[in-house]
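User: Hand in any protein.

Assistant:
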Amino acid sequence: MNTSITETHNIRGLLEEKIQHEYLEKYLKKPKIDEEKLSLLTALVDHKDSLDEIQKKRYIITTMLVQIALDTHELVPAQNNSNESKEEKLSKQLKVLAGDYYSGLYYFLLSEIEDIEFIHTLAAAIKEINEYKISLYYKELDNLEDFFEATKKLDAMLLLHVAEFIYDSSLNQLISDWLFTDRVIQEKIEAEKSGHFPLQKKWQAYDETSTNTFFINKVNALIRNNKTEISRSCSTLPEKYSFFKSYIHDRLQDTECNNSSMVEEG
């Protein structure tokens, strides 16, 4: 990757400045920045020569603010608990307000860009994400594979809209496959350390009879199959996407190294 202002560590610092809020941080954990989405988005934007440095920076920051707002709203429980304490109610209310606050920052920055097409792109992504969340909430999923596919689509939707706006739809499948594979790998690693596997917890809300062994076996198979498919997809990318092929290749190598380290430690 080149050494422009849009390098990930520079953008991360600017993003942290934007989301800093003393009152919210007093009662809530500081919002988590999805490092993989930030890195992938930076790679996409940074290699678009028709964008100047100011555009690149604003595209990345506004997109990530939307992602942070969506992720913060996702922390709010879908159902109310009649026995919850005042502190729990306050936390829930603040999560909603925090998500709205980050959304407000995104709208403010976009008003400075004066890029109507990009504004429409993000607005369309948010609309589709919210509609998909509603349909997913009420839809009965027949099996774990359907759950994985629905989660993958929802998780990648924002970046897919942005990637298609900047380039075209050629990278969509590869982006969604990689983001979901990376998420599953990271959650599996964390689960082996702490026993907490968020994706499994969500699935058990659909199927309480699902066993841990069944879920882990499915996850391992998914990771293997997805890595194979991702490598195949990379090999067919047009030359103009060679930068993205290199990015995915490096990330796959990183996951292999991390996995080898865990095996040795275990």
About this structure: The two ends are 34 Å apart (CA to CA). The chain has eleven helices and no strands. The mean pLDDT is 82.
